[in-house]
Specification:
Order of helices and strands of chain B: EEHEEEEEEEE
Helix content of chain B: under 10%
Structural class of chain B: mainly beta
Strand content of chain B: 35-45%
Number of strands of chain B: 10
Shape of chain B: elongated
Strand content of chain A: 15-25%
Oligomer: heterodimer
Number of helices of chain A: 4
Strand order of the largest sheet of chain B: 4-3-10-7
Structural class of chain A: alpha+beta
Strand order of the largest sheet of chain A: 2-1-3
Shape of chain A: elongated
Distance between the termini of chain B: 26 Å
Number of helices of chain B: 1
């Protein structure tokens, strides 16, 4: 399948796919900035590299993955997942404390909650991977 | 043969009629449905010449024939990734990637993860435009 690619203002790559209502050459002129080019989508990064779309860079007619950007994207994803997981476990801990029916139960809830929150990053890492 | 019919109402053979405004303003002026994971795969469209993926979860829908103005209404839905729930899906209005996302010739779509807050591609993205 033929698509149109061009560098965008973020330093990344924009990929334009025609719907078929107009010939691709008309789409190139009408919908894309000057300098955009028509390529076969088979030249775009495939497989795992395709996951890091925001790390794609265009040089001439070649699209490559900037691995420093890809690593930063993965780290940000991991950190966001870790924060979300920790918040979820914190709420679970607070609920367990609220529902404690004895001092022993209260202490057990605190201990279990502390362990669960501390290990949240491990779960988030697994999710990110 | 090209031509124009001027009428205030339209009526079927059973006598049911409606104001012409309903036919004009009640009809979608454009729609598109596509899989936005990876390079967008178009499933169907009307009055949409192309879809541009400008970032993860960010798509620009380009109209085949321009709208009369930019005061149209847009409905956007996403059909997969439950983590979009609690996030955001709607019109992309930030100009950091491409300026003037809402214009007579194009409109932006944005899908955001409810978990990370980052853009997230959607496997069944749809847009409908009324004007």
């Amino acid at each position: 399948m033929q698509v149109i690619i061009h560098a965008n203002s973020n330093g990344g790559v924009s990929v334009t796919v025609p719907t078929g209502e107009l010939p691709i050459n008309e789409v190139l002129v009408k919908d894309c900035p000057a300098g955009a080019i028509i390529v076969d989508d088979s030249v775009l990064p495939q497989g795992a590299d395709a996951q890091f779309f925001d790390a794609w860079e265009l040089s001439g007619s070649t699209v490559t993955v900037n691995f420093e950007k890809a690593k930063a994207i993965k780290l940000a994803q991991f950190n966001a997942n870790a924060v979300a997981e920790a918040q979820k476990r914190q709420l679970n801990t607070l609920a367990a404390i609220d529902n404690a029916v004895s001092d022993a139960d209260f202490t057990a809830s605190l201990v279990a909650g502390r362990t669960a929150i501390a290990s949240a990053t491990t779960t988030a890492q697994l999710v990110a991977i | 043969m090209a031509g124009t019919i001027v009428a205030d109402t339209i009526q079927d053979g059973a006598g049911n009629s409606t104001a012409m405004d309903n036919a004009i303003y009640g009809s979608a002026k454009a729609y598109v449905n596509y899989n936005g994971t990876g390079t967008p795969a178009i499933n169907g469209s009307y009055n949409v010449s192309s879809v541009t993926r400008s970032g993860t979860g960010i798509y620009i829908v380009n109209f085949t024939n321009a709208m009369s103005d930019a005061k149209y209404a847009v409905a956007i839905t996403g059909g997969c990734y439950l983590s979009v729930l609690g996030g955001f899906l709607g019109e992309y209005t930030t100009s950091s990637t491409t300026p003037n996302q809402r214009s007579t010739t194009s409109v932006g779509m944005f899908f955001q993860s409810g978990t990370s807050g980052a853009g997230q591609d959607n496997c069944t993205a749809s847009l409908v435009v009324y004007r």
